[in-house]
Amino acid sequence: MTSSLNQLFTRLLESESIFKNKEVLRHSYTPDVLVHRDTQTEELATILVSALRGETPSNILIYGKTGTGKTAVTRYVGKELENMSERMNVKCSVIYVNCEVIDTQYRLLANLARHFGEDIPMTGWPTDQVFQKFKEALDTQEQVLIVILDEIDKLVKKGDDVLYNLSRMNANLKRAKVSIIGVSNDLKFTDFLDPRVKSSLGEEEIIYPPYDADQIRDILYQRAAIAYNDNVLDGSVIPLCAALAAQEHGDARRALDLLRVSGEIAERKEERKVTESHVRIAQDKIEVDRIVEVVRTLPTQSKLVLFSIVMLNLSVQNQNQLGQPSTITTGEVYNIYRKMCKSIDMDILTQRRVTDLMSELDMLGIINAMVVSKGRYGRTKEISLSVPVKNTYDVLIEDYKLNPLQGYNVKVGYF
DNA sequence: CCTCCACAGGAACGTAAGGACG
DNA sequence: CGTCCTTACGTTCCTGTGGAGG
C-alpha cells in the first residue's frame, strides 16, 4: 500500500511537468511588456508625466470591456510612475482601489485615509469626518496623489458624492494635489453621473477596444513561452484558445484561463502534450465551475427563487414533449416560490423583492429575463435558465435548507 | 382607438446587525 | 449604557406601460 503510494508520488514528480511557470498565466500577473497596448500605455503615461513635475495630471476615464488590459496597463503605468518619482525625489503616490470590493463612499475614504497612516474603523464614523481626516493627512506635505478607481461604475451606483468631493478636493488643498483615474467596463455609466462630476472626471478619456483573435494569439504566445516548457503545446492549442476567447468579446483574461486550465487538464491526465481536446474540456470546465461557484454562494432566498425556476423548467420540459408550448413568467415563479417556502417553513418575501432577486440572478448570468407584453394578458418577464438545468438542480439541492424539497412536484404542489 | 391586464421597477421608509465613542 | 454612524435586506405604496381584445 505505502510503497505503491510512494511509487505514485515518485512517478508524478519525475514525470516532466509541462509547465515551466504557471503563475504567468494567472491574471494577478502583470507582464513587463504589454502586447498590443502600446498606444494606450503611451497615452496614459503622457497624461501622467505632469505628476513628476509636481503638477496635477488631468483626471482620466478609461473604458473597455473585461479582459482588455485596462487594469494591467493602469497598474503597470502607475508602478513605473511611482518608481520614477522616487528616483527623481518627487513625492508622488499611486493608490489602486478596486471598487468592486471597496464599494461605498465610506470604505473608499477610509481606505485612502489609512494609506496615509490614519486609523479609521471599519464602520461607525460620520463620512465627512473620515473625509476630513483624509484631507488633513494628505495635505501635510507637497505631493501628488493619483487614485485609481477600478470598476468605478460599482461605486457610482451607490451615489456619486465621493467622486464629487474628490474631484473638487484640489480647491481645498494647499500643498497636495489629487487626480483620479476611473476605470470602467460600462461605457454608459457616466449617464448616471452628476454633470459636474462627469466633466471634471472625464477631462481625458481613453478607450480600450477589445482584442481581436490575432492579438489574443500574440498575447498567448508571449505568455506561453514563459509558462510552458518547449514543445508541449500542440500547434492548434493557442489559436483555438484565442478564437474561443475572441468570441467572448475579446476577453484576454478568459483566454489565459483557457490556456492554463487546458494545461492542468493535460497534466492531470499525465499526458505530455496539450491538445485541442484539452482546450474543449477546459472551456466546459471553466463555465461549469463558474456557475457552481456562483450558485453555491447565493443567499438562501435567492437559491429558493432559482430553485423555483429550475423546477418550472423541468416541468415545462415535460409539457413540451406533449407539444404544449410554454414559457415561464414572474407570476408562475412567485407562485411556486410561495408554495415551496411554506412547505419548508421559510419566510415568504413579497413579489417586489422576488423580482429584485430575479434581476440579480439575471445580472449574474444564471437566468435570462426579458420584459414582454402579452397585450390583453398583461406585461411580464419571460424567464429562462441560461445554465444547464441538471447541474443547477444538483448544486441547489446540496443546500441543507433546500434539501427537503427533493422530489417536489410542481404541478400538484406537494411531494 | 381605447382599455385594462400583470406585472416592472422607482421612492421612501423600517429593522437589525455591527461598530465607535463619551 | 445610550447615541451616532454605517450597510444589508425587506416592505409598502406607488406610477408606468406594450399591446390583444373589445
From TrEMBL:
<dbReference type="InterPro" id="IPR015163">
    <property type="entry name" value="Cdc6_C"/>
</dbReference>
<dbReference type="GO" id="GO:0006260">
    <property type="term" value="P:DNA replication"/>
</dbReference>
<dbReference type="InterPro" id="IPR036390">
    <property type="entry name" value="WH_DNA-bd_sf"/>
</dbReference>
<feature type="binding site">
    <location>
        <position position="211"/>
    </location>
    <ligand>
        <name>ATP</name>
    </ligand>
</feature>
<dbReference type="InterPro" id="IPR003593">
    <property type="entry name" value="AAA+_ATPase"/>
</dbReference>
<feature type="binding site">
    <location>
        <position position="223"/>
    </location>
    <ligand>
        <name>ATP</name>
    </ligand>
</feature>
<dbReference type="InterPro" id="IPR050311">
    <property type="entry name" value="ORC1/CDC6"/>
</dbReference>
<feature type="binding site">
    <location>
        <begin position="68"/>
        <end position="72"/>
    </location>
    <ligand>
        <name>ATP</name>
    </ligand>
</feature>
<dbReference type="InterPro" id="IPR027417">
    <property type="entry name" value="P-loop_NTPase"/>
</dbReference>
<dbReference type="Pfam" id="PF09079">
    <property type="entry name" value="WHD_Cdc6"/>
</dbReference>
<comment type="similarity">
    <text>Belongs to the CDC6/cdc18 family.</text>
</comment>
<keyword id="KW-0067">ATP-binding</keyword>
<feature type="domain" description="Cdc6 C-terminal">
    <location>
        <begin position="306"/>
        <end position="396"/>
    </location>
</feature>
<keyword id="KW-0235">DNA replication</keyword>
<protein>
    <recommendedName>
        <fullName>ORC1-type DNA replication protein</fullName>
    </recommendedName>
</protein>
<dbReference type="Pfam" id="PF22703">
    <property type="entry name" value="Cdc6_lid"/>
</dbReference>
<dbReference type="Pfam" id="PF13401">
    <property type="entry name" value="AAA_22"/>
</dbReference>
<dbReference type="InterPro" id="IPR036388">
    <property type="entry name" value="WH-like_DNA-bd_sf"/>
</dbReference>
<dbReference type="InterPro" id="IPR014277">
    <property type="entry name" value="Orc1/Cdc6_arc"/>
</dbReference>
<dbReference type="InterPro" id="IPR049945">
    <property type="entry name" value="AAA_22"/>
</dbReference>
<keyword id="KW-0547">Nucleotide-binding</keyword>
<feature type="domain" description="AAA+ ATPase">
    <location>
        <begin position="56"/>
        <end position="212"/>
    </location>
</feature>
<dbReference type="GO" id="GO:0005524">
    <property type="term" value="F:ATP binding"/>
</dbReference>
<comment type="function">
    <text>Involved in regulation of DNA replication.</text>
</comment>
<dbReference type="InterPro" id="IPR055237">
    <property type="entry name" value="Cdc6_lid"/>
</dbReference>
<dbReference type="GO" id="GO:0016887">
    <property type="term" value="F:ATP hydrolysis activity"/>
</dbReference>
